[in-house]
Amino acid sequence: MLITHDARCALDVVVDLVNTAPDEDGGEDGLSDITALADFVQKHDISDVGVLSEFDLSAVRKVRGRFGSIFAAPDPRAAAGLINELVAAAGTTPRLTDHDGHGWHVHYFAPGASVADHLAADCGMALAFFVVAGEQERLRRCEAPDCRHAFVDLSRNRSRRYCDSRTCGNRLHVAAYRARRKEATG
Q1: What is the pLDDT of residue 78?
Q2: Reduced to 3 states, what is the DSSP secondary structure of residue 106?
Q3: If 0-12 CB within 10 Å is exposed, 13-18 middle and 19+ buried, where does residue 180 land?
Q4: Rounded distance, CA 131 to CA 7, Å?
Q5: Which pTM value belongs to this model?
Q6: Element spanning 61, H or E
Q7: In whole angstroms, what is the distance from residue 98 CA to residue 107 CA?
Q8: How far, rounded to the nearest angstrom, does the alpha carbon of residue 114 sit from its chain's CA centroid?
Q9: CB-based contact 139:163 (threshold 8 Å)
């Protein structure tokens, strides 16, 4: 599957956005205030964003929840329905642009759109391409029982199981090894 630069950037943004949500057991919200939202916008170089407000923070949190539902969708039809609702609500207006030295690419958000609509449109379309390509199963959650972060499995054989093999994957492999050793000695 060919992934353009702007689609890859949108995928990185949507994964990071979903992973800012508090854990099910009430962990910390990565978008706790407007400053955190501004930091997120700056970190991801999200263009055409004006002054952020409490309304923006609330709207982005709602969009984040809807993206989380897409990663949890049981099948392509469910994912497509969620993406269609998200993108339609954002009032997409596709347009070609070549800002910031990135060459020609498509923005799906309308000029002057809120940051929430911007994220919903651009990130929603990036996820839509996976559904269209029959690759919805690549939108995953980490299999580590204490993690559940979202990620996009871009491995050739669709075999990635953890958000980060160096942390979650390694931690589970070490635990399994220790359990086998304990069983063998004990």
Answers
A1: 96
A2: strand
A3: exposed
A4: 14
A5: 0.86
A6: helix 54-71
A7: 10
A8: 18
A9: no
CA angle centred on 117, ends 129 and 137, rounded to 5°: 30
C-alpha–C-alpha distance, residues 12 and 127, integer Å: 11
103's tokens: 């060459």
The letter for the amino acid at 73 is A
pLDDT at 170: 67
The confidence score (pLDDT) of residue 110 equals 81
Instruction: Point out the residues of the chain with pLDDT beneath 50.
Output: none
Number of C-alpha atoms within 13 angstroms, CB side, residue 173?
Answer: 9
- Can you tell me the distance from the alpha carbon of 119 to that of 178, in angstroms, rounded to the nearest whole number? 43
Q: How far apart are CA 152 and CA 127, in angstroms?
A: 10
* Token reading at 160: 């990635």
* Phi-psi sector, 149: left (phi>0), alpha (psi -120 to 50), beta: beta
The span from the CA of 171 to the CA of 146, in Å, is: 11
Q: Are 52 and 38 in contact (CB under 8 A)?
A: yes
How confident is the model at residue 183, as a pLDDT?
79
